[in-house]
Amino acid sequence: MSAIKNIGLKLSAPVLLLLIFFSCDYKKSENIFSKKPNEIISIKYSEIGGELGNYKIVEVTKDSIHMETGSTHTKAHKEWKSKNTPQIWNRLTSTLDVRTLDKIKSSPSQQSVDGIDETFQIRTPKKYHAYVNAYVDTIYYKQLQKLKDQILNILP
User: What is the pTM of this model?
Assistant: First the structure.
């Protein structure tokens, strides 16, 4: 009997240690807690939809800008990448008031009627904000409109 118990422990202990090892990621948790709670980590803007399935997806971080654009109808796809500068990042993030992001209201998707959905995704250490067709919100959308204008100005 004691040999069976030892084999069970011998098999379960390494599995338990592997689970603990893979569930711990110190680098990620250190980075999240070391940042300011209202600091913007990334911004993603997209326009997707229409009769031809057009799309434009732009993701901006402190050090990079990435854009994908194309059409599913013609199967065209282009990508553009660039390094970001602190000046551009500060100009983009200065248009946003993180304290009012929770007040912005989204609207229903327009893709089902061949419309185009405009989406914004803004990530902070504390929260992930996502908006679909927020242009209907006449009070708080202004900051997203300024952000959109700034993003479109930095693209080729």
Answer: 0.75
